[in-house]
Amino acid sequence: MIDIHTHILPDCDDGSPDIETSIKNLKMMQDAGVTDVLLTPHFLRNLYHNSADIIENRFDLLQKTILKENLTINPHKAAEVYLDSKIIADIEKENLFIGNTKYILVETSMTIFPDDLLETLYHLVRKGYRPIMAHPERYNNVIRNIGVAEDLMFRNVYLQLNAGSIIGNNGKQVQDTAWQMLENGFAHFLASDNHCHSEEYVLPKAIAEINNEFDESLTTLLTEINPRKVLNNEKIDFFYMEKEERNYPEQLNIFEKLIKKIFK
User: Fold this and answer.
1) Residue range(s) defining the domain that contains residue 82
2) Dihedrals φ, ψ of 74, to 5°?
3) CATH number at residue 137
4) CA separation for the pair 37, 3 (Å, rounded)
5) pLDDT tens string for the chain (264 positions)?
6) What radius of gyration, in Å, describes the C-alpha atoms of the chain?
7) Which strand (E) or helix (H) includes residue 255?
8) How many domains does the chain have?
9) DSSP per residue over 137-202, as a string?
10) What is the largest CA-CA distance in the chain?
11) Can you give the pTM of this predicted structure?
């Protein structure tokens, strides 16, 4: 597994407060089968202004400690960037991309999308960058209208679901929205958004529930295939599911989701 959204980089946001906590969580993730982890501290103007120097210093400390503790998990530098009209300059200045790729993890207001959100996303895409919208199932705009998620995909924005949302940690509305997104193929990644506040690493539990409802090919796509493509800076298909009508009994869904082009 590859976890593309975590707050394990120590002492730079509302995630891990220190190196000991970071290592404890990385050990837990490694034991769960995670091979690579993206360290995505918040970049939020006037609150978490994590510059390239801050991220580099914290990353070097964590990497040295990983080697000292004989861990095999591979860390990767990144950030979770709160979008505003002037953010592109900061993204470029502070190198807030995922590793050396054109991918960037972004977020916005949970309550209501700002008026300039789509314009900002447009300019990111126009410059050749590949935005991944963090936890869209938690945004009220998406909760009220699942079609908003599809619209973002048509605008060349990738979508990352939180594992906690799948298992109900963020409430019933968010959980229902997350499952609707999965059913419609409106998700490209599943990640933990681990803030180091729990003794449980939730990604395996979410994977098990999705596998029980669908099959392992979907979770493989969301936690292995697509994340590996991100690290390799490869393009990912925005749309990968189609509907095929079947003559199933009434109690079953008459639509079967088919994953295309994954294992060819």
Assistant:
1) 2-259
2) -100, 120
3) 3.20.20.140
4) 5
5) 999 999 999 999 999 999 999 999 999 999 999 999 999 999 998 889 899 999 999 999 999 999 999 999 999 999 999 999 899 999 999 999 999 999 999 999 999 999 999 999 999 999 999 999 999 999 999 999 999 999 999 999 999 999 999 999 999 999 999 999 999 999 999 999 999 999 999 999 999 999 999 989 999 999 999 999 999 999 999 999 875 544 434 433 423 444 554 544
6) 18
7) strand 255-259
8) 1
9) GGSHHHHH-THHHHHHHHTT-EEEEEHHHHTTTT-HHHHHHHHHHHHHT--SEEE--B-S--SS--
10) 60
11) 0.92
Residue at token pair 């959204």: 5
Is 264 among the domain residues? no
* Cβ atoms of 55 and 61 closer than 8 Å: no
Write down the H helix ranges in the chain.
19-31, 52-68, 87-94, 117-126, 140-144, 147-154, 163-166, 172-184, 203-213, 216-220, 226-231
Dist. CA 172–CA 180, nearest whole Å: 12
Tell me 224's DSSP state: I
